[in-house]
Design goal:
Number of strands: 24
Distance between the termini: 31 Å
Number of helices: 19
Helix content: 25-40%
Oligomer: single chain
Bound molecules: zinc ion
Length: 557
Amino acid sequence: MKRLWMALALGTAITAGCYGSEEDMADLVFRGGAVWTGDDAVPSASAVAVKNGRIVAVGSDPDVDHLVGRETRVVELAGRTLMPGFIDAHTHFLDGGAKLAGVNLRDAATPEEFTRRIAEFARTVPAGTWITGGDWDHELWGGELPRKEWVDSVTPDHPVFVNRLDGHMALANSAALRLSGVDSAGRTPDPAGGTIVRDPTTGEPAGVFKDDAMGLVRRAIPGETEADLDRALQAAARHALEHGVTQVHDMAGFSSLETYRRAEARNELPLRVYSVVSIGSWERLRDFVAQNGHGDDLLWWGGVKGFVDGSLGSTTAWFYEPYSDDPNTSGFMTSDSADLRAGIEGADSAGLQVLVHAIGDRANDWLLDVYRDVAAAHGPRDRRFRIEHAQHLSPSAIARFAEQEVIASMQPYHAADDGRWAEKRIGPERIKTTYAFRSLLDAGATLAFGSDWTVGPLDPILGTDAAVTRRTIDGANPDGWMPQEKITLEETLKAYTAGGARAGFVENKVGRIAVGMLADLVVLDRDLMTTDPKSLVDTRVDMTVVGGKVAYERPTG
Ligand SMILES: [Zn+2]
């Protein structure tokens, strides 16, 4: 009854103009919900109002009612969650967009299925077209690496170069080897930082190329056109918005940065992008910043990304001790150590942000040492060094993230995925400080979560489930794998919002629901805080809002 009276009174008031003019009214109002603000000052609320792309009110339903005008869109949350949009702090965004339209090998669980999918895809593209992407996972069929013979008979006219889901190895067929000029008799040597997998009897390339050896084939693939990249961006953006992601940090290069700039100039960039380029081009980025500044709230740049090592899946992550299941190797540095150090020093001295991939314990320690030395040599500044992945840490490394103010940019879904087989690879001791979310937070580190899409799915709900429950995706660890490293739902959401914002220097603009912040918001179909953690994974995104504009709405019915 009271509500009815309020509504009537409000209606009258608006017509009478007592509540202010129509231009004072909100564009968008959410009410009746479970608002998780991510803001410690006002942790929860039931209503939020948005105007001109910004949040103008946060509170109870009556706090926003006076902002509802004739043109205001009112979203009745009816108990659903409204929270800041997810930030995915590590993606390969345009690769992902291109792959959305390519061959999918991700869940090919047998060699026969692998072959069948490539055969089927080859029939859909003209002869001569390179078949790339794939994201296969040889662990699904027991760990045997694919060989070129698996696909040669179904792709006589299509060069194939399909990658493992971590991007650290790829399979070439015979047509691709011919075009790349790699000697089919096996005379092409392994390049530094890479391996050509060979037939043990003949020494001929067997098809798989690891890490820097992939360049031998990749150089033969014609570059993508601008139109290809523009299409990839739109496909990727749609995919992100459907998953509640309002901002991505993209680990790529200048052609991606230019693609985002074209989209922004045409008013076709529907989410926020921090565009990071390769550390090898730090001088070019320094000059680009001098000329063009750092971008704006929708698209910005100023970070460079390098690599210390490879990946656990490819046994190229760099450890102190040999792999438990491959005692001949401890992994290795995939970059020249002097070059990488010089790149970090140069970029830091130019005021750029440095982000470096480190997976193995030795790689992380090496990088923490370099970061310490560079910070000491160049003096204090708000530099926000990042370690991407920070997957396997020596026990002594954990406290150093907080001490050295290094952001741990991690991907919780990798834990659910690698957790199936990581122990076989690195043994029971090293596994204890793997994906050490709890330990890092307890030590005071900033976590920024992401997907590493397309290595992991671009889906923060799956990542949230992984961080909170630490279940592995094979269902083998229902109560959590290394459960001592579980973190709470709120800690997880912070790593996906404020943590990512901090990692991208935008924590004063997005990542929390507070008055004055840009209105990047997501509506989830349930009250997350009262959901049984085991059902979090069923959560669906109902609406995604970027800068006050509804960018995605789940079709009803
Ligand atoms: Zn990555």
